[in-house]
Write a structure and sequence with these properties.
It is built from 4 helices and 21 strands. It has 366 residues and is mostly beta strands.
Length: 366
């Protein structure tokens, strides 16, 4: 992996401008498809993150765990290493089953079923200590992800400090890791830290207003494998569990590994890494629950304000409904879809705009 950095001393005006960036809270969830409580926990989590300002001011990352029982098929050891290295008291805090658990900005830790909108709102009140932006591009043939990250420090960061830059690649939706708890689709599933770097990138000494840039490439080696369970987990050094390379996202955050405090977080935007151009205006889309009985929620990540068209297509390729959402804002937006009158079967939800197109599979099962 190649990487580099540079420093720029920003003017005081730039400092005051970057300080206006909204707080974005990092939401890390410990979950497993073999945990009975995770079905309701993940539904609770999605409902909370899709409401109010949470839609655009949170970054979600889910670590599939190797327990209870045989554990989740998409468990990778770095997920457990992350949990124990930084949040060991969270694990020990659940004497029976340590999932489902959720951690907000490395500080607030609880059972995911107990999470409320108030908890997230409280986390969002903390002023950011950095601003971050990122761009990434995926080469599905080469199985590579190119990433460029720009960061501005809003506080002094001493040389040799424990403040580090983290980058994690996740898959927006997976369906191969169905277990025993009733979940059939999974969102924001952690796949790997960029370069396998669990401890993050060390930051140089910076004064408030100084800027830093990182760029590099992550390669998923080998072939896709679906383990039967977590007893024979994916080895990221020789294989991978990516179902669709077109469905990958990148979470970025700055964190003090001593205090566990997250300074700021963001999603990288898809485009040409290193260039803020040619960015598709629809970054991703998710449907949950899926399969759906009476309704499903469509979550759209938009890179700009735009009109978005929704088309529902049946298994025969016929468009059976069309809807336009006007002035969809940048960030995460949710929209309810009524499926109560649809016949059981497979459908496609096509989400399009002037500069973006995403299609998602929807299963209706009454």
């Amino acid at each position: 992996m190649m990487k580099g950095f540079y420093f720029i001393l920003c003017s005081f005006l730039a400092v005051f401008t970057t300080q206006a960036q909204n707080r974005v809270t990092l939401v890390e969830a410990l979950t497993s498809s073999t945990s009975p409580g995770c079905l309701s926990a993940n539904q609770n989590l999605e409902n909370i993150l899709s409401s109010g300002q949470n839609e655009s001011n949170t970054v979600l990352l889910k670590y599939q765990m190797s327990f209870p029982g045989d554990g989740d098929s998409y468990f990778v050891p770095d997920a457990l290493n992350r949990a124990f290295a930084l949040y060991a008291d969270t694990i020990n805090g659940f004497p029976a089953v340590p999932v489902p658990a959720v951690i907000l900005d490395g500080q607030t830790k609880m059972n995911t079923n107990a999470l409320t909108n108030t908890d997230v709102a409280t986390a969002l009140q903390n002023a950011p200590k950095a601003t971050i932006s990122g761009v990434y591009s995926v080469d599905a043939v080469a199985q590579t992800v190119d990433i460029t990250v720009d960061m501005d420090a809003l506080v002094n960061i001493p040389n040799g400090s424990s403040v580090r830059l983290f980058m994690a690649i996740f898959e927006y939706e997976t369906t191969g890791n169905v277990g025993t708890n009733g979940e059939t689709s999974f969102q924001h599933v952690f796949k790997s830290f960029v370069g396998g770097n669990l401890s993050g990138e060390a930051l140089p000494g910076m004064v408030a207003g100084e800027a830093y840039q990182w760029s590099g490439t992550h390669t998923f080696p080998g072939n896709y494998r679906l383990p039967a369970d977590a007893s024979n987990p994916i080895n990221n050094a020789v294989e991978h569990s990516v179902e669709e390379f077109s469905d990958l996202g990148v979470a970025i955050w700055v964190q003090d590994t001593d205090t566990k405090e997250v300074y700021q977080a963001t999603y990288a935007l898809p485009g040409t890494a290193g260039l803020n151009e040619n960015i598709p205006s629809i970054a991703s889309a998710e449907l949950y629950p899926n399969p759906s009985s009476t309704h499903t929620t469509l979550a759209i990540q938009s890179t700009e304000m735009q009109d978005v068209t929704l088309e529902l297509i049946n298994a025969q390729g016929q468009i059976i409904s069309t809807e336009t959402l006007n002035d969809v804002p940048a960030g995460r937006t949710t929209h309810a879809l009524n499926t109560s009158d649809l016949a059981n079967g497979m459908y496609t939800v096509r989400i399009s705009s002037d500069n973006g197109l995403v299609s998602k599979r929807l299963v209706v099962q009454h």
